[in-house]
């Protein structure tokens, strides 16, 4: 078990709320007990060794929600080793349900280029080597809209150096949000730093980005998502 990262001023002990919603059904309990261990990234210190398929790059998605975006990334980029991080058990079950049929939780074939991190993503970042990642995704994170909760946002001035350390020079950080407060926050935080360059910002999903349920919900409810690409200097 990794030790928690050392305390960083301005960042709380954890950046998420609850880890479970409704009571899990027996099938979901089996997925967590039998399927998840077969996909869990074993050693962040050597992430490439954790994949059973040959890979050319390593990408990370932080907070994959229901998992549809992570699975689309893994399926359309077989040369990439994708680490998908999520603490919410119902979200983990949603992804795992798509991978194995009922009754095959312990034996069903699993993608060799996908590994899961079912814990705080900051612990993963603390364990990764310098320059381990070629790309990072943060898709529609919890906006923590109240000012007193802003310290829980993954995009945070104190957290940028932690992210920058594990991204190679020139690596992309892709961010999407539909919340006006978070959109303004991203613009503010990145305007006051010197670790990343802004490549593009758009209010329509750019080519090569996969849709998510949160994007669809935003459009249904009349909100306009925004999409950023930053590169590590």
Describe this structure in words.
This protein has 233 residues and is an alpha/beta fold. The protein has a single domain (26-232), classed as Vaccinia Virus protein VP39 (Rossmann fold), CATH 3.40.50.150. The chain is 29% helix and 21% strand. It has seven helices and seven strands, in the order H-E-H-E-H-E-H-E-H-E-H-E-H-E. A seven-stranded mixed beta sheet has the order 3-2-1-4-5-7-6, sandwiched between helices. Helix 1 (26-39) packs across helix 3. The longest helix is centred in the N-terminal third of the chain and has 14 residues, at 26-39. It starts with 25 loop residues before the first helix and ends with a strand. The mean pLDDT is 92.
Summarize the structure.
With 233 residues, the chain is α/β, with parallel strands linked by helices. Helix content is 29%, strand content 21%.
Structure characteristics:
globular, 7 helices, single chain, alpha/beta, 7 strands
């Amino acid at each position: 078990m990794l030790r928690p990262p050392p305390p960083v001023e301005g960042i709380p002990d954890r950046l998420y709320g609850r880890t479970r919603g409704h009571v899990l059904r027996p099938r979901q309990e089996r997925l967590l007990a039998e399927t998840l261990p077969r996909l869990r990234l074993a050693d962040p210190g050597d992430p490439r060794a954790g994949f059973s398929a040959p890979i050319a790059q390593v990408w990370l998605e932080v907070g994959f929600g229901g998992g549809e975006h992570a699975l689309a990334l893994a399926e359309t980029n077989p040369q990439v080793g994708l680490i998908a991080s999520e603490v919410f058990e119902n979200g983990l079950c949603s992804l795992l349900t798509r991978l194995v049929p009922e009754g095959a939780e312990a034996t069903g074939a699993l993608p060799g280029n996908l590994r899961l991190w079912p814990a705080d993503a900051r612990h993963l970042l603390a364990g990764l080597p310098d320059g381990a990642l070629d790309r990072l995704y943060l898709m529609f994170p919890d906006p923590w809209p109240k000012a007193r909760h802003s310290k829980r946002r993954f995009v945070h001035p104190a957290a940028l150096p932690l992210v920058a350390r594990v991204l190679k020079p020139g690596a992309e950080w892709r961010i999407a949000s539909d919340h006006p407060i978070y959109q303004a926050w991203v613009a503010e935080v990145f305007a006051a730093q010197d670790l990343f360059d802004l490549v593009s910002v758009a209010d329509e999903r750019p080519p090569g980005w996969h849709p998510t349920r949160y994007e669809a919900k935003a459009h249904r409810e009349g909100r306009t998502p925004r999409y950023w690409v930053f590169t590590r200097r």
